[in-house]
Sequence to fold (159 residues):
Amino acid sequence: MKRQDYLSWDEYFMGIALLSAGRSKDNNTQVGACIVSDENKILSVGYNGMPTGCNDDEMPWEREGDFLDTKYPFVCHAELNAILNRSAGSLKNARIYVSLFPCNECAKAIIQCGIKEVVYWEDKYAGTDGVKASKMMFSLSGVKLRQYIPTDREITIKV
Fold:
């Protein structure tokens, strides 16, 4: 008889997105993403951080101040990093697990690369114009949206 308490696919892939978020050096918001094929194979992962080659010790991480003194013009979001980090092949018909609902810029990239489902943990910016634009684009392009429903399962990783 097989084990009955194994992780569901949603638990597994959202867990990887959340674990990836732990790589972010942003002191306010850590976001992770995991892109999965329709065969439940991981295609890529990403987290919010500075572009490759930009020393993140020399980059601004502030949220307030002059535009160029903040993180906003520089940080690559988790979804974009996951899309750009894929090693090979198409993301057509894939789904993406994200710890935070995608902004409008990431929504464009998700749609353009052919991802067909967004599974998100949190939608804390739901009332903003950026997220409203994301939802409009997802609806118009046929991308399915689904909020992840956490289970009571606790997973502990000791490193």
In short: The beta strands are 32-36, 42-47, 95-100, 117-122, 144-147. Residues 104 and 133 are 6 Å apart (CA to CA). The two ends are 32 Å apart (CA to CA).
